[in-house]
Write a structure and sequence with these properties.
Number of domains: 1
EC number: 3.1.1.31
Radius of gyration: 16 Å
Order of helices and strands: EHEHEEHEHEHEEHEHHE
Largest sheet: 7 strands, parallel
Organism: Jiella endophytica
Keywords: Hydrolase
CATH architecture: 3-Layer(aba) Sandwich
InterPro entries: 6-phosphogluconolactonase_DevB (IPR005900), 6PGL (IPR039104), Glc/Gal-6P_isomerase (IPR006148), NagB/RpiA_transferase-like (IPR037171)
Strand order of the largest sheet: 1-10-9-6-2-3-5
Helix content: 25-40%
Number of helices: 8
Catalytic activity: 6-phospho-D-glucono-1,5-lactone + H2O = 6-phospho-D-gluconate + H(+)
CATH class: Alpha Beta
Number of strands: 10
Length: about 230
């Protein structure tokens, strides 16, 4: 298991500024060489400051496609929608010009529209230029929850599916998530975590153990052209 590149910052503000600058540089480079850029980000509260810094980046946002790593199966009107949070904190200012690709479709269960979602994300085209992951204290990342029904489909390195459905054991909502190949093949792949408890979880995930118990281990063990980057602040 290759060692990740660990970036430690004294404050969360400094982390957000550094991560935003790094991601903006990756996106600008992709636009310069490919004419477009692809970015996938995580929901939750941790990345909000990073999003706000990134939204002001002076890049050609018209050429950027933005999506989420995962989403709860709720409409944007729901307070728990990651898409709604993204619109408030990232897709504003200069970044409002980006093209956003959502997961949610009006349907009771994601299984009813899985083919639609797979087609949608396959049409994004080539690999993501940047994927920014979070990590829970249970060792999940994206919606790869420990021992959850659907986890095997998420982690299959040979799957042709871009999207998988997960039903976390302790949650009422279904989740939709990018699969392992969609995430692991990103040009720039980073985990953004904050606080001492997350640092302890990271150390536990780096130790030997079952991937099903701490699915973030799949990312640490992925064969990649470059290093996995970890950004942390207290």
């Amino acid at each position: 298991m290759a060692e990740p590149a660990f970036h430690r910052y004294e404050t969360r503000e400094a982390l957000a500024e550094a991560l935003a600058a790094g991601v903006a540089a990756v996106l600008a480079g992709a636009i310069a060489t490919e004419g477009e850029a692809r970015l996938a980000v995580s929901g939750g509260s941790t990345p909000k400051l990073f999003f706000e810094k990134l939204s002001g980046a002076e890049i050609d946002w018209h050429e950027v496609t933005v999506t989420l790593v995962d989403e709860r199966w709720v409409p944007e009107e729901n307070a728990r929608s990651n898409a709604a949070m993204l619109r408030r904190h990232l897709l504003t200012g200069r970044a409002a010009a980006a093209h956003f690709v959502p997961f949610y479709e009006p349907s009771d269960m994601p299984e009813e529209v899985l083919d639609t979602l797979n087609d949608r994300f396959h049409r994004i085209g080539r690999n993501f230029d940047a994927v920014i992951l979070g990590m829970g204290n249970d060792g999940h990342t994206a919606s790869w929850f420990p021992h959850a029904p659907g986890l095997a489909g998420c982690l299959d390195p040979n799957t042709d599916d871009a999207v998988a459905i997960v039903h976390p054991l302790d949650q009422d909502e279904a989740r939709v998530t990018l699969t392992f190949p969609m995430i692991a093949d990103a040009r720039f792949l980073a985990i953004h975590i904050e606080g001492e408890e997350k640092l302890k979880t990271l150390e536990a995930a780096r130790a030997a153990g079952a991937v099903e118990a701490m699915p973030v281990r799949a990312v640490f063990g992925a064969a990649r052209p470059g290093p996995l980057d970890v950004f942390w602040a207290p």
